[in-house]
């Protein structure tokens, strides 16, 4: 069964995490992704370890279902190949620093001349305007600028970023939303357009609750560790072996928690009679809860709390999540063929479509694995391709992608 974007062609000149994540989503939805990479090194993520059979895990995670062509974009002949690709493309995606694409001859206005119906997506660090717009930026840098690191962790603890690429992959999601919206507009009008998003804009949007809290109170939001400013008890509580998370957001859930803990008398305690009172006295409430939790391991408490309808979870290690029965039951892992790696497993996109499902059919390509095939499809002769190789305009992988 074909994915919803089957027949859509995407030219991808992105690197690292944000752009490749965006095009991976489009690929899993059925789009054909032609990934243009630099000679010799390719996408920077190829060199981000640890490695499986020499392939970086960062690259493996977000580059499945793509074709790789190596083109030297610094040379005019290389740009001409891109123009040839763009003529029959639907979407072009770049995540260069501001104005770099324009300087390379690959900006929106230039490619619009090649294909007036092209949807062109720019995914940057800081957006298209403003004093920071021309700065480079990685996920952690944008986390700091957007205030996320400033509210992350616990008071007095070492400064810490959120240890997943939330702004890289979050901005990729917004880029996909923008592209799909542009495709609907194009369907109605025939017009292409410029879609823009950034790590910074994503971060500011996601800190919205905290910014509104500041505007409402005039006070800087406090660091809460695993806790919450608005609810209590809410956060990480230590059992006999490890921590578990408990989330109580109303009096009904607090009543259920008290029942499980054998502390029904807390319901009449003026310190805990309302959520506001529990927030005011959350430190002593946490201590009281942990004194009880210490009698059992976290897993046992989670089972008891679940039976009573109290939201909770053991704070799991990554190794536990990999083998978790819930992970298996939701079929989050797929086996993919790869030219060098036996039994490559990758997580699927976290949504499902009943009538046009996403597909993972091919592992990430070797650098330049599809160079010759793509150029041949464009009408380049064997002699032309050989000449381009000799001139260093293109590169092709010695070992092509094949299924096991």
UniProtKB/TrEMBL annotation:
Keywords: Transferase
InterPro entries, per database record: CoA-transferase_III_domain (IPR050483), CoA-Trfase_fam_III (IPR003673), CoA-Trfase_III_dom3_sf (IPR044855), CoA-Trfase_III_dom_1_sf (IPR023606)
Domain of life: Bacteria
Regions crossing the membrane: none
Alphabetical list of Pfam families matching this protein: CoA_transf_3
Enzyme Commission number: 2.8.3.16, 2.8.3.19
UniProt GO MF annotations: formyl-CoA transferase activity
PANTHER family on file: SUCCINATE--HYDROXYMETHYLGLUTARATE COA-TRANSFERASE
Name the UniProt record assigns to this protein: Formyl-CoA transferase/CoA:oxalate CoA-transferase
Species this chain originates from: Cytobacillus purgationiresistens
């Amino acid at each position: 069964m074909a994915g919803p974007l089957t027949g859509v062609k995407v030219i991808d000149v992105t690197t690292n995490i944000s752009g490749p994540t965006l095009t991976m989503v489009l690929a899993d939805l059925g789009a054909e992704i032609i990934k243009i990479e630099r000679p010799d090194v390719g996408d920077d993520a190829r060199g981000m370890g640890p490695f499986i059979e020499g392939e970086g895990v960062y690259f493996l995670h977000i580059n499945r279902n793509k074709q790789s062509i190596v083109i030297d974009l610094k040379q005019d002949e290389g740009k001409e190949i891109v123009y040839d690709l763009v003529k029959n493309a639907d979407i072009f995606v770049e995540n260069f620093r501001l104005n770099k694409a324009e300087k390379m001859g690959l900006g929106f206005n230039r490619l619009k001349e090649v294909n007036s119906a092209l949807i062109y997506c720019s995914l940057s660090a800081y957006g298209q305007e403003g004093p920071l717009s021309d700065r480079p930026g990685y996920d952690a840098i944008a986390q700091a600028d957007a205030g996320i690191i400033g509210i992350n962790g616990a008071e007095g603890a070492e400064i810490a970023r959120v240890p997943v690429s939330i702004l890289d992959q979050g901005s990729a999601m917004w880029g996909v939303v923008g592209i799909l919206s542009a495709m609907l507009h194009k369907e109605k009008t025939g017009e292409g357009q410029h879609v823009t998003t950034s790590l910074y804009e994503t971060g500011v949007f996601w800190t919205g609750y905290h910014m509104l809290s500041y505007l409402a109170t005039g006070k800087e939001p406090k660091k809460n560790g695993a806790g919450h400013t608005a609810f209590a008890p809410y956060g990480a509580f230590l059992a006999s072996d490890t921590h578990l998370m408990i989330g109580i957001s109303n009096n009904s859930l607090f009543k259920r928690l008290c029942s499980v803990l054998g502390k029904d008398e807390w319901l009449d305690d003026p310190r805990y009679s309302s959520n506001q009172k529990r927030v005011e006295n959350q430190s002593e409430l946490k201590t009281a809860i942990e004194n009880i939790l210490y009698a059992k391991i976290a897993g046992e408490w989670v089972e008891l709390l679940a039976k009573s309808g109290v939201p909770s979870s053991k704070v799991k290690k990554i190794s536990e999540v990999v083998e978790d029965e819930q992970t298996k039951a939701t079929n989050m892992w797929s086996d993919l063929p790869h030219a060098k790696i036996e039994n490559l497993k990758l997580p699927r996109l976290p949504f499902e479509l009943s009538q046009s499902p996403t597909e993972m059919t091919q592992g990430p390509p070797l650098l330049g694995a599809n160079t010759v095939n793509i150029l041949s499809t464009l009408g380049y002769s064997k002699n032309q391709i050989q000449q381009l190789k000799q001139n260093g305009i293109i590169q092709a992988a010695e070992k092509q992608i094949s299924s096991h």
